[in-house]
Amino acid sequence: MKKILSLAVFVIFMACAEAEKSHTETAQIVVESFYEKNLPTLKEYTTKESFQAFMNIQDMFTASKTENSNFKIVQELEDGDIAWVKFTTAYEEQPETFKLVKENGQWKVTERGLREKGPF
Predict the structure, then answer these.
(1) In angstroms, rounded to a whole number, what is the distance separating the alpha carbons of residues 84 and 26?
(2) Which residues constitute the signal peptide according to the record (predicted)?
(3) Predicted pLDDT at 4
(4) Comparing C-alpha atoms, which of 78, 117, 72 is closest to residue 101?
């Protein structure tokens, strides 16, 4: 009986646990939360420095009324705990590139280092 109860608790726990987002999913979440001005979500998926940088420029943009971001991956590269995602959206004409790092097992958009060039 204890085994069945333990198994049931384990299954319920696993069902309730949120799946880890990939680096590309994280990039899309950050783009959409920025343009929709969803600050709690933006903060959750960015590093502290990156969140502050987004906050510094967000007032220059009006909240998007576009329902579909049309997020499309152009290129991506993952190397251990660092990833790069180049993408296009309905919000900007030119492709953008995010650098992501893993913090406590979760991908987060971060700032590029001074003079750091992306892989593409």
Answers:
(1) 11
(2) 1-17
(3) 58
(4) 78
